[in-house]
Design brief:
4-stranded mixed beta sheet, 40 strands, 22-stranded antiparallel beta barrel, 6% helix, mainly beta, 9 helices, single chain, globular, 849 residues
């Protein structure tokens, strides 16, 4: 049966080198949520590149993920990389190249003429308008987005050699990847080397030695560059009469630079940089000894190290005060981790009975060291920290942690038709206090291979039918180190001496968050061409590791506690069919859909919590979805006056609601934010088609999601109804109108110079994030073998592909695919001057010899 995998893949950013956000079966925690665990070639952790991947398996139900312990509370991605299979060395060279351009979606900014005519209605008199906006501006039309976003180049080259002549099998590969960002100065470059070697020393003893080395460089950007590209006025030009970038500062006259912020990011980008460099090494060694046909022992070990450096440099050529000198902020980090998993396996059949069992012990450790420095006063063309004339600050980090686990499983089958298994895992983590560090997590599963029953003999349509059920408990310790301890900060001085400030409250009772999961499923195949997989699940999270706000009188902002409960319930359906088989022609199609409902349960000693910065945030309340938007409720536009309207809730002295009314005063509505909608989708999925005829194949992938609401924060700045006359404005979408005169039923209020408060944070800027995306179309052709025999080639294929070709959505921004993680300044589900994703047009060739 095919693997039925439904993963929420979100491109939180289109910047080069930024990985997609992955979630399996919804969010698993509020403040301690984690992505799926990656297991590479049977060893927990590690690194890989797509070109080296042979296949991917997704583990979701509790019985499967419980074997990996607390690391797997978000699910598991099992990656198998390529190995040598041919008795003779097989060489392969591949090259891919193409271009990328941003997807603009439904979004478009105003031209100079459109903005000029729109702003005419802002000013109180025509004289005031002409004085602030001379007539000549109407014909100026510099496209800042077109200047900031240009086509980028993608290059990917790979060479590999593999063989399996006998006892020794090997696979070696080298890959070079370079991606130019669509936004100016951004790029990502990676060099990857992989060595997979397996050696069967005897019939009983075998070794697998895998090494992956990755070197990367990421040229990034400063946030204000992206911000300015969307907001600058089309009446300003970043270049002088000679075509050189202009230096803009606070002293630049207002009639020479009309945009609010007195800076020119085109000039800044030619002098400043934000640069990341990293080196990642992972070495994995697996040793297995087979005592006999039913007893074996193996040890799986990995050690990984990651060294990185990040530099932010602001040149003296880019600053308002050039005498101030350049400024450099640099950070160096060394992270390493190691894990060892040791397992004794038993697998034996006794007639119709089969018993498989294993017991194991696992230990892991990690360390993180960091050193940072910031200095000013750099001479021109020097960016070495030691050349700073004015050292500003020094910072550092040195943390480590350890984990230990004991685990085992017993499985039984009768006639390979009835299956039972039970497992138990004890996990210990140094992230918790000594008396709370251990958690105990059982799991069990059962399956019935119905299609092998004699009462179905002679059935002409049912080829496979399996019923499954599982239950298990998984722990989660995804918090920072030493959070159970009272912490002190020594970043300040007092009276010339180091001063310690108590900045973390202790909680010696902090312990494991637990997820209790139940899953039932059906796998079936009918008519030898249609496969169906259905799963229903419930995941109950208890003792959530919450960052609980505490009174400021305590001297702290938050304390980590086990206070919350949450439930995810869902149904997943996957269909795979051979739609048409006719000679050499095959059409295969797969469709999947996943429904998930999230609900927050009891919050112990806490009536509510918050996710995201005020006022754009989620309030976590029992009975609600975890990422429910709580905002002042937007009612619309007063048809008689064109004023904005919100809903105000009135309360009595006891806090009970007494009524609701419409108000034109935002402050009144802001006192009573309401649950509006959720940032989580109701359902999501994908639909693929694969068509092949002889050496020609066509693959098409659609993805979709429905029901989530996006807070389009950037619209507050360029859909502002006059609040920011020094910012550009977006063109109105189909069906949007500004109020002009009494009686107008409009979506947008009257234009008012410096605004009417309509662009304050409210449900006005919540938008439907549903979409259907044509994510990939690829066409490939493999030359016939008879044409290659004379030139001694085993295979030659050519591929043309397009990514993100078309998105159908009502969302007014560039891309409805927004972060589901959030950050310190952004709530999950928020779009805030996002680096847009790109359409990619690629051509590739692969030669095997």
């Amino acid at each position: 049966m095919p693997n039925s995998s439904l993963i929420q893949v979100t491109a939180g950013s289109g910047a080069p080198g930024v990985p997609a956000e992955l979630r399996i079966r919804g969010i698993n925690s509020i403040n301690a949520d984690k992505p799926p665990l990656v297991v590479v070639d049977g060893v927990i952790g590690g690194n890989y590149v797509p070109a080296d991947v042979e296949n991917v398996t997704v583990l979701k139900d509790a019985a499967a993920i419980s074997l990996y312990g607390s690391r797997a509370s978000g699910g598991v991605l099992v990656i198998t990389t390529k190995k040598g299979t041919s008795s003779q060395p097989q060489f392969q060279f591949g090259a891919t190249s193409g271009i990328k351009k941003i997807t603009s979606g439904n979004f478009e900014l105003m031209s100079g003429t459109e903005l000029y005519d729109t702003q005419r209605g802002l000013y109180p008199t025509e004289l005031a308008f002409v004085k602030a906006r001379p007539e000549g501006l109407r014909e100026r039309n510099f496209d800042w987005l077109d200047e900031a976003f240009q086509n980028g180049m993608i290059q990917n080259y790979k060479f590999s050699v593999a063989a399996n002549p006998g006892k020794l099998a090997y696979y070696f590969s080298t890959e070079y990847f370079k991606e130019d960002g669509t936004f100016l100065n951004s790029s990502f470059e990676r060099l990857n080397f992989r060595s997979n070697v397996s050696y069967h020393a005897t019939d009983k003893l075998s070794f697998v030695n895998n090494i992956n080395i990755q070197l990367s460089t990421n040229e990034s950007y400063f946030y204000e560059w992206l911000y300015d590209a969307f907001l600058y006025l089309p009446w300003d030009n970043p270049y002088d009469e000679n075509g050189d970038p202009r230096f803009i500062s606070q002293s630049t006259p207002a009639n020479q630079w009309y945009s609010r912020d007195k800076r020119n990011f085109v000039h800044t980008a030619s002098n400043d940089f934000a640069r990341f460099k990293g080196a990642d090494l992972n070495w994995a060694l697996t040793v297995k000894y087979q005592f006999n046909g039913w007893l074996s022992i193996e040890t799986r070990n990995r050690i990984g190290g990651f060294v990185s450096r990040y530099d932010e440099f602001r040149s003296p050529e880019s600053r308002d005060s050039r005498a101030y000198g350049g400024e450099l902020n640099t950070t160096n980090n060394l992270n390493w981790d190691a894990i060892s998993t040791n397992i004794l396996r038993f697998d034996k059949e006794f007639g119709d009975h089969g018993v498989a069992a294993f017991a194991g012990i696992e230990g892991s450790t990690f360390s993180s060291y960091g050193l940072g420095a910031r200095g000013r006063g750099f001479p021109l063309n020097l960016t070495v920290p030691g050349t700073a004339s004015d050292p500003q600050a020094i910072s550092g980090i040195n943390v480590k942690g350890n984990a230990m686990s004991y685990f085992g499983e017993v499985g039984y089958n009768f006639q390979e038709r009835y299956f039972l298994s039970a497992s138990f895992r004890a996990d210990g983590s140094s992230l918790f206090a000594p008396n709370r560090k251990w958690g105990y997590f059982p799991a069990a599963s059962a399956a019935w291979l119905v299609s092998d029953e004699t009462f179905l003999d002679g059935n002409a349509w049912l080829d496979f039918l399996k019923l499954r059920a599982s239950y298990g408990v998984v722990g989660n310790d995804n918090i920072g180190v030493y959070e159970y301890l009272g912490g002190y900060s020594f970043l300040r001085q007092y009276n010339g001496e180091n001063a310690g400030i108590n900045d973390q409250a202790s909680n010696p009772d902090l312990t494991w968050e637990e997820t209790k999961a139940f899953n039932i499923g059906v796998d079936m195949e009918i008519f030898k061409r249609l496969s169906i997989t259905v799963d229903a699940y419930t995941k109950n999270v208890d003792g959530m590791l919450f960052q609980v706000p505490v009174p400021t009188s305590t001297g702290f902002q938050f304390i980590r506690r086990n206070v919350g409960a949450m439930t995810n319930q869902g149904i997943e359906l996957s269909l795979t069919a051979d739609v048409l088989k006719a000679g050499d022609f095959l059409w295969n199609s797969s469709f999947n859909i996943a429904f998930n409902k999230n609900e927050v349960g009891e919050l112990v000693n806490l009536d509510r919590s918050f996710k995201g910065p005020a006022p754009i945030r989620h309030i976590i309340l029992p009975g609600q979805e975890a990422y429910t938007w709580y905002l002042p409720k937007w009612i619309g536009v007063d048809p008689q006056t064109g004023a904005p309207q919100w809903e105000k809730i009135n309360y009595d002295e006891s806090g009970n609601e007494t009524g609701r009314e419409i108000t034109n005063t935002y402050g009144e509505a802001a006192l009573s934010p309401q649950a509006i909608s959720s940032a989580l989708p109701d359902f999501l999925g994908g639909w693929t088609h694969s068509l092949s005829y002889k050496g020609l194949s066509l693959n098409v992938l659609f993805s979709y999601q429905y029901g989530n609401q996006i807070y389009n924060r950037s619209r507050q700045f360029f859909d502002h109804d006059g609040t920011y006359p020094e910012y550009n404005m977006m063109q109105l979408q189909d069906g949007w109108t500004h109020w002009q005169q009494p009686g107008d039923v409009a979506t947008h209020p009257k234009l008012v110079f410096l605004g009417s408060g309509a662009n304050e944070a409210s449900s006005r800027y919540l938008e439907d994030g549903s979409y259907i995306r044509l994510r990939n179309v690829s066409l490939s052709y493999a030359l016939p073998a008879r044409l290659l025999e004379s030139v001694k080639l085993q295979g030659v294929s050519f591929t043309a592909s397009v990514d993100n070709l078309k998105t159908w959505t009502k969302y007014s921004g560039m891309d409805p695919d927004v972060t589901i993680v959030g950050g310190p300044f952004t709530a999950p589900g928020t779009s805030d001057f996002k680096y847009p994703i790109s359409k990619q047009f690629l051509l590739g060739m692969q030669v095997t010899f």
